[in-house]
Structure formats: C-alpha cells, structure tokens
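User: Okay, second chain of the day. Same drill as before: sequence in, structure tokens out.
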Amino acid sequence: MKNFFTIIFLLLGLSLWAQQEPHYTHFMYNQQLYNPAYVGSRNTPSFTALHRSQWIGFEGAPTSQVLSFQTPIMRERAGLGATVSRYAIGVSYAWFGSAAYSYNLKLTQDLNLRLGLQATLEYLGINFADPKVVTVSQFDPSINENRFQDDYVGNVGVGAYLTYKNMFYFGVSAPQLYPNDIGLNDISITTAKIAPHRYVNLGAVIPVSEQLDLMPNFMLKWVDHAPVSFDANFSVRYLQKLTLGVSYRAGGDGKGESMDGLVFFQVHPKFGVGLGYDYTISKIRQYQSGTVEVMLRYDFRDDKGGLENPRYFKKK
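Assistant: Same drill. Structure tokens below.
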C-alpha cells in the first residue's frame, strides 16, 4: 500500500510537468504510434505488437500494449494504418484507437516525403470502487467512491516522414493537435487536459561492411509547459538479422530516466522478435526492478522480394 501511495504522488507530478503519453524503448520500430505519415512507408503490409511492463515490483506501476497494422496502397503512392493501444496505471487506464492515411510525394529518385493525417478516439476510466483507493478528504466532488467513471475524447493528428534511399529517415508529428478535457468528475469544472505532444524522429543505417550496419536513432518529445525529453539509441546490426542496441532516456531527477538495452532478431524474412530492458537511473530505482518490453512484428512479403531493410524503409 505504501508503494501505491508513492506512485500516485509521483504520477500527479508527472501529469503536471511531464509526458502524458507512454514511451517505448522500441520507439524506432513503433513509429506509427507517433507519426501517421509512417503508414505505408514499408513496401509490405505488416503487423506490430508490443507489451511494456514498467517499474517491475512497483504496485500500480504502468503497463501498456500496442497493436498496429499498416499497408501501402495505390502502388505505394499512399498508405493506410490502424492502431489500438492500452495504458494502465494504478486504478486508471486508457484505450486509444487511431486510423491513419499518408500520401507519398516523390521529391527525387531517392528522396520521398510522406504527409500523414489521422483521426483518434481515446477512452479513459478510473475505478474509484477499487479497494486500493482511500479517500482522505470527505465530500470531494471529484471522487465517487462507489462507481467507475469514464469518458471518451476524439482528436486529429498530422505528421511528415522523409526518407532518403534506404539510409536515412526524419519525421515530425503531432498525434493529437488540440487539448482535450479529461476531468472525470460529477461537477462542471475542468480538472485536467490531455496536452498535445510533438515528436521529432530521425535515424540512419550506415553500412560498415557487407555484414555490419551501424544504426543510430533519436526521438525528441515536448509538451507545452514541460521539460523537453528525448531518447537516444545506438544499434549495431549483423547480417541484417541480429540487432543489438543501447539507449539513454532523458528525464527523472537530472541524471536521466533510464539506460536501456534492446535486441531484435529477424527470425524469418516475415517475422521478427524484439526484447528490451530499461535500467532506471532516477530516484524511483530503489522501489522497482527495471522495465521489460517485448515486441513482435510480422510482414506479409510478396513474390518480388519484400523488404530490403526490415526496419524503416521501403524497397527502392
């Protein structure tokens, strides 16, 4: 119970000053969640599934799941995609769904710019009847101890995604453009808002030899009235099958939020598996045992050979 109260106070602070949307160690594989322009950027329909258990051993700690699908259409001139995700923390959780469309502007033979648009629907709920909830102040109009409270909010998002050959990508996006009220109470005042998040993603594949590629990746995240956050990753890929990487996530109490390790193995030309572990370096590290993330990806390859690079880019 002590851990439960501790996390509630920590997350109250996070909701005021930091990111509201979940982050993922496999962000370079999970770009559809952040940028609608990414859909169709691969030359094959594909599914991606991801599970994240954060701060293992910490009662009420966040867990999240993502399932996404994307496919090129119109001879790869456009793309369609859909994403469903769930995020739970303490006695609250949220479901998020989106449908995305992108169109490819072929700037040169090697340079492609995709512009994307998405519509989103989010479901938010808090179970005040959970026995873990203890009301300190009586007659609080924001809390109804005897029932579950929920709400739906809709939004739209935009993005742009630039690729050069099979070597470089750069994306900018805002998955939700305007703030939504999320005051789950029985009174008319507004208690909280979903703040629009903006993202910048960039990365490259740098061949060192026929067997070895270097793959740096970076994601910048910012919200109004909150510190800028970022993830920096450096990965090495061997034989286009085994990828090993290390990451640093800014945040926490000044030193950063976590140091992360990840591995991705292309088991089959159609199927890949990823595993990540975050070692927490912020003050909360003494209450938990790190974070684990698992990712699965399935590609529907065609008879033309499928993906040249199974991570980011479409075939030339």
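The chain has one helix and 17 strands.

User: Thanks, on to the next one.
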